[in-house]
């Protein structure tokens, strides 16, 4: 009798519990996150769901997709999840995963202030930052899985969801109750800008004209890529719409962003489908059994999910990947189980008129001469900031673009992008046209390579001229802090002041650089990098007993740093300065006919505690003079050049392109 009662009790309990669970199962996890009132997130029910969310989070910081996290878990399932945590299996941003869980944690933290939710959220921020490719894109899964999921994924708004999250955090909108750390925020700014750069680079050109984007782009070539068998390389209406909405949300868009939006809108107008309505046929239990396209002249515009890269023609396909011209030609399963038409681009078209009125390119520049631009802080020029002027110049121009900068203090972090070649920044006067910023290693906080992000002015383009400028890193003596970084070829810096402390000038890359009539100051290794660089008639000023140069010349380079007719000076009481030390063991640095002050140590050079560098570096001098030139006391592994050896250290031989011809060299036209 007792057993019968137990069975009946168990059956009743099971029925009641099953009914409760069924009610929970009927809820959509996404709806819970987005539709529940704020107060609900303080309830025991919400906290129970939050326990599941924490369990599903992988140790790397992300979550798997397509999981109804509000479903109850058995003890066995919980143990399995603890194992999966460590494997990081399935962590992704696809189908809203990770982004939606972060929003849930933000909402529950706003009500409870429980640090466990904050910490899980911040771990997810780190996950997103870690998952980004160097080119700015994000894969579908991270850690990476084999196959198409490694592609840069716009599909189902995976990358755009990430970018919108980063934008909300960097703009401090208050959308999330949890604020990233200072270090995370600095990384978020970098990641967002890299993401925008990736978006601009992946916009597809059709016969030389910018159009839209594919659902996936190859992570290496950036070209449209295939995913599942029926998701072939194509132009995508839906994903492209949400990319454009993101670009339109940028407060001060660059010329490239404006051009991308205008081009995409033109494409949306060109490929929209009118006079056609999508009808769904349902059975008696509400399931879609057929989709049909019906002529209807009053139907709103729609856009195909997939369009041919060559001519924008819509196409459809089953799991065999064979393209068909119409929806009716494919089987029931794919026809009814996939969204082949979308209306998302209409959101862009609705917002575009207001956006265009605000950002029309015609209103950006005051004069019509795109090759001669004026920057002035008082508004009397074409632009008030240097970066905006650079962003709105022609890319890869055949004719030199000159940006004249009026006197003033421009507190900006300036970047001359790779496509801004053939560009001159000319200041009104060296002492009064000042570009300054104050980033330094610990402030940037991007890991062991933070130095390279600290620049005030960065040159990535070839054929750039900087003239009559002060370029300053104003952070003080706080460690590595770059004023000027140059990575490119045929760059000239003329009559400029480069001010800083440690790592003032990063003259790097494999290109040729020319520094003439400049004042360069610093403390430690304040001229460093791998470039072939010629310094002529410059004052090199040491502010501390330390090292002037730290070359990292590549092994195969003929020349490294060459200083000719330069004057080496120092602050008062500075008396122990080395000419250089090898950042990398094949460093090359030569001083010719230079005035070496008394602060230069008699031994001249230091091996940076790298005994092997004494055999591989080339440190040389020729006809230097003044108290700091003591050739007989120099370290034995340095070189005092002979006349014949010194003859090769000419401007033409080091920086020239036409070494055996009489053509005018690039530096002769400055």
UniProtKB/TrEMBL annotation:
It comes from the Bacteria. It is an enzyme of class 3 (hydrolase). GO terms for biological process: cell wall modification; pectin catabolic process. Residues 372-655 form the Pectinesterase catalytic domain. Pathway: Glycan metabolism; pectin degradation; 2-dehydro-3-deoxy-D-gluconate from pectin: step 1/5. Its EC number is 3.1.1.11. SUPFAM superfamilies: Family 10 polysaccharide lyase (SSF81853), Pectin lyase-like (SSF51126). This is Pectinesterase.
């Amino acid at each position: 009798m007792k057993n019968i009662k137990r069975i009946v009790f168990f059956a009743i309990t099971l029925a009641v519990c099953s009914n409760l669970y069924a009610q929970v199962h009927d809820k959509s996890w996404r709806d819970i996150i987005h539709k529940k009132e704020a107060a609900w997130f303080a309830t025991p029910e919400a906290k129970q769901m939050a326990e599941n969310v924490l369990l599903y989070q992988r140790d790397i910081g992300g979550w798997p997709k397509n999981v109804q996290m509000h479903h109850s878990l058995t003890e066995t399932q919980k143990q399995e999840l603890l194992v999966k945590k460590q494997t990081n299996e399935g962590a992704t941003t696809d189908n809203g995963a990770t982004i939606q869980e972060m929003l849930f944690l933000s909402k529950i933290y706003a009500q409870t202030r429980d640090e466990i939710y904050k910490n899980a959220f911040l771990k997810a921020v780190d996950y997103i930052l870690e998952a980004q490719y160097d080119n700015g894109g994000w894969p579908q899964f991270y850690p990476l899985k084999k196959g198409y999921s490694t592609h840069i994924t716009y599909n189902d708004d995976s990358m755009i969801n990430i970018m919108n999250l980063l934008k909300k955090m960097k703009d401090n909108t208050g959308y999330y109750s949890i604020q990233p750390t200072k270090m995370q925020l600095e990384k978020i700014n970098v990641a967002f800008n890299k993401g925008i750069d990736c978006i601009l680079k992946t916009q597809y050109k059709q016969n030389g004209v910018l159009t839209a984007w594919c659902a996936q782009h190859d992570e290496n070539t950036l070209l449209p890529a295939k995913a599942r068998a029926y998701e072939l390389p194509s132009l995508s209406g839906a994903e492209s719409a949400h990319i454009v909405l993101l670009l339109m949300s940028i407060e001060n868009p660059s010329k490239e962003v404006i051009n991308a939006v205008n081009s995409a809108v033109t494409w949306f107008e060109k490929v929209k489908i009118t006079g056609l309505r999508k009808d769904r046929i349902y059975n008696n239990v509400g399931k879609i059994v057929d989709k049909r396209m019906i002529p209807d002249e009053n139907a709103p515009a729609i856009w195909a999910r997939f369009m041919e890269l060559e001519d924008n023609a819509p196409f459809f396909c089953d799991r065999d990947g064979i393209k068909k011209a119409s929806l009716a030609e494919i089987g029931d399963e794919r026809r009814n189980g996939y969204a082949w038409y979308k209306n998302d681009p209409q959101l862009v078209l609705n917002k575009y008129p207001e956006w265009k009125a605000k950002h029309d390119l015609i209103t950006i520049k005051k004069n019509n001469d795109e090759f001669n631009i004026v920057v002035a802080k008082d508004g009397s020029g074409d632009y008030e900031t240097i970066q905006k002027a650079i962003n709105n110049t022609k890319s890869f121009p055949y004719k030199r673009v000159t940006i004249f900068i009026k006197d003033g203090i421009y507190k900006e972090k300036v970047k001359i992008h790779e496509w801004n070649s053939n560009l001159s920044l000319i200041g009104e006067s060296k002492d009064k046209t000042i570009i300054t910023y104050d980033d330094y290693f610990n402030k940037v906080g991007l890991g062991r390579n933070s130095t390279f992000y600290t620049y005030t002015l960065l040159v990535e383009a070839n054929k750039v001229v900087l003239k009559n400028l002060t370029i300053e890193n104003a952070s003080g003596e706080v460690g590595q802090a770059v004023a000027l970084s140059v990575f490119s070829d045929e760059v000239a810096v003329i009559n400029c002041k480069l001010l800083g402390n440690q790592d003032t000038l990063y003259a790097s890359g494999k290109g040729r650089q020319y520094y003439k009539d400049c004042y360069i100051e610093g403390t430690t290794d304040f001229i460093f990098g791998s470039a072939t660089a010629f310094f002529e008639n410059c004052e090199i000023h040491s502010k501390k007993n330390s090292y002037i140069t730290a070359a990292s010349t590549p092994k195969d380079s003929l020349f490294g740093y060459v200083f000719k007719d330069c004057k080496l000076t120092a602050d008062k009481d500075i008396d122990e300065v080395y000419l250089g030390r090898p950042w990398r063991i094949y460093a090359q640095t030569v001083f010719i006919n230079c005035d070496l002050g008394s602060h230069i140590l008699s031994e001249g050079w230091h091996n940076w505690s790298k005994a092997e560098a004494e055999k591989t570096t080339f440190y040389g001098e020729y006809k230097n003079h003044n108290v700091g030139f003591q050739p007989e006391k120099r370290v034995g592994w340095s070189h005092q050049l002979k006349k014949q050896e010194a003859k090769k250290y000419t401007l033409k031989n080091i920086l020239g392109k036409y070494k055996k011809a009489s053509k005018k060299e690039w530096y002769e036209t400055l």
